[in-house]
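Listing 4. Sequential folding, example run.
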Amino acid sequence: MNIRKIFKPFKTSNLLLLITLLIPAISYAQYQENIPKPSGPVDLSKTSNVVIFIVIPVVILIVYLIFRKRIIKVKKDKFDRMK
């Protein structure tokens, strides 16, 4: 069955509205009771917390910036070749 035939009667704005209205219902359905929740600040004296909350986000940010710069360079080179 073709997906386009299913969603053809719907406009993009209607689909976006439907998705926006369904997000709270989906997130509430995943709510689990009796799960312990953290109640205080993060203890950075533990190595695992430092790695999880500082090192990994910094590495992700650096990788993102490197790839973003590379993508911009590739697009510029492609544009220059088309001239």
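-- end of first protein; second protein begins --
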Amino acid sequence: MSQTRRLRTEGKRKVGSKPDADVQSRNRLRLSPGAEKILVLLLVAATLAGLYFDFSLALMYPLTSDMANAGLFPMEVMQGNFEYVLPANNPYIFTDYIIHMVIQPLTGYSHVALALTGYGIFVMIVLSGAALVWRLAGRVEAAAAAAMIANMPFMGLIYVLYPLYHNGTILFILLSLLVYYSDRPPLRLSFRSRVLIIGVLQFLGVFSDTLMLPLFTAPLMAYAAYRILKQRMAKETEKGDGEKEDSPVLLLASAVPALIIYVVKSRIGQLWPGGPILAASGADLGSPGNLFQHTEMLYYYFAGLINNAGGIFIAIILLFLVVATILDRRDRFLHAVLVLGGLFMIIGFMSMDIAGDPARYLTPISIMALIVAATWTMRRDVGYLPLVAVTIIVLAGAWPNGSVIFEDTDPDFIRNQQAFVTLLESENITHAYADYWTANVYTYLSGGKIMIEPVNVEDDKLRFQMMNSAPRWANIWPDGTDTRPVVIALADSDLDAWAKKVNENHPPEEIHEFEGGWIYVYNGTLPAWPAGE
């Protein structure tokens, strides 16, 4: 290779190498030290204001059964029962549950602590995003990233404040990116060390949540393959090159354990005798058997991205910043994670057999877009336009979030949910049956004093729902021993329709109406599948 070519390709050799500092300095807006300090302070103030709004929203959101699992599973474990059925697609063991296992028992399984734990993970996401941008660009850009993430509009914010809504996965992705770019001060790691850490994070992350596979592991593999191809074309991998240690082959190899665990985790079943059980879920993202069979999900994909951005206007501004940043051709791995992750998620969406609430799968892409956009905040190529765009994005998120907090127009969801627990206690109801979305919430809020078993209707009979529950709950199943069963049915639900049909021949002894449904108290057993079936 000629000396000229070596000089031309020197800056491209190391995977993740940082552009020359002088080049970066020449491409930045030139502000006086005082003006830059004021700008940083304003962005930090916007971040703190956003985090205050986020804190208030975290305490305002209603508790859901998905959230309640973050308290119920630790509650079961502390009682010596590790058997809990978790979806193999996203058991969340290392990304989320490992945190709740510590905090929930220490706080007496407090729903406030549960909400604050979700909020705490979000704060770590904000800090990790800012730290990543600081490494790649500078302190102004880092402050911009923090301000934009902290002021995400509440339509998308809900998905990173709720516990067990992939927020731990987002944190794992950002930590992996931070490790990848740890090839520079203040924390410089060798390439092999970075690859090892990234491999461990991928393994634990994909095991805990399959969402990390299309959003990080698959883009990493594609980027590593691209680097291998480029090196071979440039003949940079020949013996004695001196850069062999940084070969992207190692980066590609770091994804192998994650791929293996993805393939086998749905077949593992029980992790150990008496331990958690991983069960196949009907909501698997990108099921191989359904590839490209649900093109109608493209609507949900783009609608979800716009929803998370806070509307079409802000989505267009963010798209402009992202495209401009990518065309600048810096930080290519970060760009690959965003672009390829978005493309792989399109494939995943068209392979989903249910719609559910798909916007939650897209929050990581929204946050990555904000991070990529932040790295262009101080670029001088188009004057102050990027800085103005960042300001608009921050204000567009802060305004509706602040309005929700200060107008206080939403009801106190948690207080209403606690009032329902009080109603059950006043009626001496300690055991009941309800659909999943009702059952786990009130079992958790009662501290386990009221056991509400999750059920669904199948062939006109009640069947215990195993997913996200402890199998031991079925030991008190109405198979002939429960002579005074209680059914909690929400209006217009499948369980409500079933109960009204049963009531024609088996009228309940008591009916208690509550806002949104009825409580039926029966004398005698109900049509049900035997326990364990």
